[in-house]
Amino acid sequence: MLSSQSIARIDREIAKYPADQKQSAVMAALAIAQEELGWLPGEAIEFVAGYLAMPPIAALEVATFYNMYDLKPVGKYKISVCTNLPCMLSGGVDAGEYLKKKLGIGYNETTADGLITLKEGECMGACGDAPVMIVNNRRMCSWMDPEQIDKLLAELK
Amino acid sequence: MAILGAINPMLSVGLDGDNAWRLADYVKRGGYSALRRVLEGKLPQEQVINEVKKSVLRGRGGAGFPTGLKWSFMPRSFPGDKYVVCNSDEGEPGTFKDRDILRYNPHSVIEGMVIAGYAMGAGRGYNYIHGEIWEIYERFEEALAEARAAGFLGANILGSGFNFELFAHHGYGAYICGEETALLESIEGKKGQPRFKPPFPASFGLYGKPTTINNTETFASVPYIINLGGEAYLDAGKANNGGTKLFSVSGHVNRPGNYEVPLGTPFATLLEMAGGVRHGRKLKACIPGGSSAPVVPAAAMMECTMDYDSISKAGSMLGSGAVIVMDETTCMVKALERLSFFYYEESCGQCTPCREGTSWLYKVVHRIEHGHGRPDDLDLLSSVTSNIMGRTICALGDAASMPVQSFIKHFRDEFAYHIEHRKCLVPVELQRAGSGFFKASV
Ligand SMILES: Cc1cc2nc3c(=O)[nH]c(=O)nc-3n(C[C@H](O)[C@H](O)[C@H](O)COP(=O)(O)O)c2cc1C
Ligand code: SF4
Ligand code: FES
Question: What's the topology of domain A4-65?
Fold first, then answer.
């Protein structure tokens, strides 16, 4: 199901916890699986559960509880825009509107070419850099004024 | 962003953005000398805890609980596994200081945690890092590797016979995991749902073992306390409010960012350091301690000093030290609508008053903002908040209620205007100008 590199990464995570507490690695393992597959299909969740010797339902509960897991396919790039109050005061909501207009989609939608999915996010702990957005759960983009957004979109191909 | 300014700093001394976070830089500016002092000097555990008590370091995660006292609750001489856990799940809207500490001074957190582990007889620690700051999680992993290689972590640290392992665990998008028992559940690989207390983590924590949880900035302060001595640390702040603190200033200021100042520094000074209100506009209100803290109108805020006691006297909380500044372009109804949506989204759903109540709060504020408010909506909101507060497992219920109560208390006219006239008191064009987003394109 997962590449040997992903398995090796999951093994490194498991080693962080006491030997009888493998389940502690489930969040990391699901994140690693999502990184490889682009999203989390049911089989991946089952695979992770099996690998960590935990009930599949427990792994599914984790996958549904934390909102950075994608249980449905998303575009090649997922852009999450922070619109919480501190960011809103410095243009977070405007940045979201600007993106919607440019991409011709709303939140939780994907462009027709499957390239970009737009999400509304909660505080990312970077409010001083507002507006902020995160690409594919990994790359934090700061001070996203119209110019910076245009630059980002030109780069995401 | 960076730590943009400071008065008599400790945590941010010698930092140089992305260029000075490594172990060698930390050691050069005196890092790990506190750990040496403790381990090589064979300081009794009791004495370490006493220094922390004397410093009156109050937890930097939100509640302001005295750290030394918390540490003394740990059954440190009981045999068996014990844990120290660092809360870097910084998700309280407005707060971005722990991110900068981990980014620019990660070894201060590691050193603080090893000292804490020693003082409380714990052999293992975890640092739970907000999932959204992935690059910082990776950097912390690198810092851990450096500390292990240098013998500051692992078996027999500095030849003292003390063993301490420390690992990083990342979140993946759930504000509630900042609540300490939800965080423990999350490390155990479960949904992040808070536990009933008691039992408290000091007796039943991670994997059911005695555990102490502190905030990132709390741990990062510990080496400075050991080096300076508890009393000197206390003196760096003000009575009952020891030390300096990082304040994350966001919103309508010219220079948003982190500022380290002594507790007790006037708000006016902090505001000035942050460049003043954006474009010289008029200050309208400020949320001084993260989104869960009650809002304070401008006049009262300008009288405050930045410490637990002064802010609490003004009817709010110092909380996490997140200072959200709002100027005259802010529509208070819209501001509250966004916060209420946040708590509604992030309620873990375990307790009925919180799950149903946060949904009501959002629905009602939303309809007021969108011109469908009803004459008795303000009373309805206040009755919903009183049905939530004090009736839930964790403090998120209160955190959702306090903004609603305080916004309505201080800006009732604005809410009433919305209900009556079905529009904002603050002209929409002015609100739009306030964010500054469209300066380049429009
Ligand atoms: C809903 C909720 C969210 C919280 N989020 C955080 C957080 O992001 N970081 C943090 O340190 N404490 C947070 N806390 C407070 C923790 O439960 C805990 O009190 C704190 O980590 C203890 O550390 P301290 O004593 O060093 O402040 C939160 C509490 C609640 C109720
Ligand atoms: S108060 Fe809300 S967030 Fe806290 S445990 Fe209850 S339902 Fe969950
Ligand atoms: S409010 Fe957007 S990062 Fe905090």
Answer: Arc Repressor Mutant, subunit A (1.10.10)
